[in-house]
Amino acid sequence: MEEQIFKYSVGCDISMDTFNVCILEVSQERSRVKASHKFKNETKGFKEFNAWVKKHKKHDVQTGFYMEATGVYYENLAWYLFEQEYSVYVLLPYKTKHYLKSIGIKSKNDKIDAQGLAQMGAEQKHSPWRPHSKSIYILRALTRQHESVTKLKTSLQNQLHSNEHSAVRNATVKKQLNATLRLLEKQLTELSGEISNIIDADEKLNEKYGHIDQLRGISKLSWATIIAETSGFETFENQRQLVSYAGYDVVENQSGNHVGKTKISKKGNSRIRRILYMPSLVSVRLKEPALFNLYQRVHERTGIKMKGYVAVQKKLLVLIYHIWKNDKAFRSDYSKIFGEEESKDLFPFGFGETIKESSPDKRATQDEHSYELSSKVLFPLAQI
Q: Among the three residues 123, 148, 176, which one is the final residue of a domain in this structure?
């Protein structure tokens, strides 16, 4: 009896210049590698890839294309395949990493990763990928540029401070640093204005941002960064995936009589953790009830302020996620937004009592303090 094929699963491991692919022929009894190949990560390569897939498809059945959401290199291929009306699945990197470990794959190269993605697609069910509005892609470019300019400005401010307090001061260096700082200040103002304009001009983004008007501590810039870095939460099925993606998931280290430190992993998107640091301070300073009460409880239990601030950072991220998903305006009594049971489960794993401080690094913390005091641009109080 002829084996019945009901699906083709195509894994795509993508780098800047090329992408490796593996196509699996899936039946009820097994998954068999049909072919593997490498293509250029450009339009010509996409067309060759499409023809190659059609050549190896001997049955008119569903075909799924699976790739990781790493960097921006996957986006052009994902867009191309979506426009060809294929089913595209963009997977979170930590999921694929743990899947490959679970099936005993220890080696790593592009060919193995492509086959692993194809196998994962054949065995598991995933939500299909949909391209986001151009506004979100534009926001990502603008917010990342804002972060880069901010870091550069802070570095030059430190140089200026060093020059002004050294034993031998140089007037030329001071003049050039001040001129560059004025230019960077102008660029930051332009970027902040452009970010605000993008949100105001996009009906969906403007409506979504309006839902957090009552949440004190979040500016347009910080909100736009979170939305841009998570692609509008498109690939997240629940809050635990989001928390892990941002690096706020708790990692325990104990076995038998050994009890090590329990801390957050920090293995995730550092831009999200960085942008949430200052809002956590502001929301506590303004005593936003839904956040200030959490900070007080954690601080009283642990005696460490930073643990309280990190708990607030995580809660801010989860609040923004639920507000976005549920399309309901924020109220201080967040249980009215999410429902009583869900609000009790916002922070599993005893997060507030076990985490370790999580500012991205000591220098980043100092930089953000310095930036807030010197320019008031990163989180202008007028936008809070």
A: 123
